[in-house]
Specification:
By secondary structure, the chain is of the alpha/beta class. It has two domains: 198 residues, Glycogen Phosphorylase B (Rossmann fold); 144 residues, 3-Layer(aba) Sandwich (Rossmann fold), CATH 3.40.50. The chain has 15 helices and 14 strands. Strand 5, helix 3 and strand 6 form a beta-alpha-beta unit. Helix 1 crosses helix 14, helix 2 crosses helix 15 and helix 10 packs across helix 13. The longest helix is centred in the first third of the chain and has 15 residues.
């Protein structure tokens, strides 16, 4: 099966969506499927003022059509609701091509954290976007129940995994900080609710890994916190494994792969009892979920690191990829009725307009 995924989130941006899609492509290949992408780097773009260093792709309909016609996939999946996702959705509806979508980001809550934007309006727009899909994939059962209560239908589960070879206890380094060490990893932005963690009265040290639009503000407000900037791969794993507790203060993430990465390093999680932490941790003795985040942080210090590692081993990227491929296969009943491919000159023109190689 050949699958084309449209995503507005891609490198150099580091987030759960990018991590998931890269792991999916690598794992699907071993399962006999091919995953290709339409990503922002293929098109003209403009900078995002609220997200320094990030740009918003601005694809034209002809550019999107050229890429889809050229690749002629067996299934199309739209991973994000941004400009690329919208243009691919438009192409599919115009040409009667079935597609699936993902609900990975709580954009209504994110918008409300920055602007006086009613959350209900955001969900109405997202409901309309996803209603045209043959299936909408979500990462957890609790998120599926919530979206159904908001009028979404044709929901399918697509869980997440963790690279337990990369994230493991043996990678820990000496951070040379007073213990206990409480660490948080992720984008430093209002929707991540880092204030709830950094304002806590806790013993030892607080460490934040990541970057984002709120970084300088929080550095000034909390000078005692160690802000280590953005990291990737083994460097993140080494720092997380060196901590005593992983703090996940977000109330809006739909999953939070960083929790699994911490658990794989043998580090217990402290979080609020909301979607994401509730699904990753559940009733397992590998984290504490409490509306009193300080109590959760201190209680997590007493949890078994061995139990954390064992819990993370239950989440494999192969199981995640198998779920995704099964969901995508539901729309592969007969050859997709693509319009005739563009002539070579037409494709070259579209690629040139998009800045593609």
């Amino acid at each position: 099966m050949r699958i084309l995924i449209a995503t507005d989130a891609w490198r150099p941006h580091i987030c759960g969506v990018v991590t998931t899609l890269e792991a999916l492509a690598a794992t699907a290949r071993r399962l006999g499927a091919t995953v290709e992408f339409i990503t922002p780097g293929e098109f003209a773009s403009v900078p995002l003022p609220t997200y320094p260093g990030l740009r918003c792709a601005l694809p034209r309909p002809a550019e999107i059509a050229a890429r889809i016609r050229h690749r002629r996939p067996d299934a199309i999946h739209i991973a994000t609701e941004g400009p690329i996702g919208l243009m691919v959705r438009r192409f599919c509806l115009k040409n009667n091509v079935p597609f699936t979508t993902s609900f990975t980001t709580r954009f209504p809550e994110y918008a409300a954290s920055r602007f006086p934007f009613p959350v209900g309006w955001g969900y109405a727009a997202l409901r309309r976007f996803h209603a045209a899909a043959a299936a909408t994939m979500v990462s957890t059962a609790s998120l599926a129940r919530e979206l159904r209560s908001r009028g979404f239908d044709r929901i399918r589960i697509w869980s997440r995994g963790v690279d337990t070879d990369l994230f493991r206890p043996e990678r820990a380094i000496d951070l040379d900080l007073p213990r206990p060490i409480f660490v948080s990893v992720g984008r430093i932005a209002p929707e991540k609710n880092l204030d709830a963690f950094l304002s806590l009265q806790l013993p030892g040290s607080k460490v934040v890994i990541g970057g984002g639009p709120q970084e300088q503000v929080l550095r000034r407000r909390f000078p005692e916190v160690k802000f280590l900037g953005s990291m990737g791969g083994a460097q993140v794993a080494a720092h997380v494994a060196a901590a005593d507790v992983f703090v996940f203060p977000s109330r809006t993430d739909t999953f939070g792969i960083v929790q699994l990465e911490a658990l794989a390093c043998g580090v217990p999680v402290a979080a609020f009892p909301v979607t994401g932490p509730a699904d990753v941790i559940g009733t397992s003795p590998v984290g504490l979920l409490d509306e009193d985040l300080r109590r959760a942080c201190l209680g997590a210090l007493r949890l078994s690191r061995e139990a954390c590692r064992a819990h993370a081993l239950k989440f494999s990227w192969q199981a995640s990829a198998e779920q995704f491929l099964a969901n995508a296969a539901r729309i592969v009943h007969e050859p997709i009725p693509y319009p005739a491919p563009l002539p070579a000159t037409g494709l070259a023109s579209a690629n040139s307009a998009a800045g593609a190689p």
